[in-house]
Structures are given as C-alpha cells and as structure tokens.
Amino acid sequence: MINVEFFGTSPTTGFSIKGHSGFAEEGSDIVCAAVSSAAYMTANTITEICKENPSELFEEDGLMVLKLDESSAHKCADIMQGFVLHLSSLSKEYKQYITVTISEV
User: Fold this and answer.
1) For residue range 56-97, what is the model confidence (pLDDT) as tens digits?
2) How many structural domains is the chain composed of?
3) What is the CATH number of the domain that holds 26?
4) pTM of the full predicted structure?
C-alpha cells in the first residue's frame, strides 16, 4: 500500500509518500510508476523550474518527503494543488493500493 500524506491545505506545504502499491511485480507496477512519476515531476518543478529550495527533500526506496516553508508554499500552491488532485484521483481508482490523507499543520 502506498500512503500519501499532504501537509496543510491553504497552501499545501508538503507531502510524504511511503510504501509500495503491490499492484504488480517491481518493474511492472503501473500504480507505483504513476505515483513516482508525479512525485518526481512535482519535486523537480518546484526545485528546477520555480527555483524554490524545500526546507526538507528526502528520497530513498519507498519513501519521499518534501516540505516547503510558507513563502515557497504560496509560490508553488498551484503545483501542489495539481499534485493533490492527481493523487486523490489515483487513490479513488486504485483505492486498495493508495491512501491519501490531508493533515492540518
């Protein structure tokens, strides 16, 4: 199961993604691929396109965490909102493989 937690709502100040979906074998898992691709696109857009420096950015097998300070979160609000929408939609379609929670900070 992939567990996604978003921090804050107005604006979203970051996310934590943990786990593997178990949808299919490694290398063939479209659910893991979709989540990973969207997470990396979000992180890369924030750091490389918007030139914002997350207060925390960490990635290892089965875990990615990104946290923004309030100023950066406001500048990247549309990007984060799109990411929340995308993963929320995936979690509805693949509810046995992805959970999404939104925590107030």
Assistant:
1) 999 998 899 999 999 999 999 999 999 999 999 999 999 999
2) 1
3) 3.30.70.1490
4) 0.93
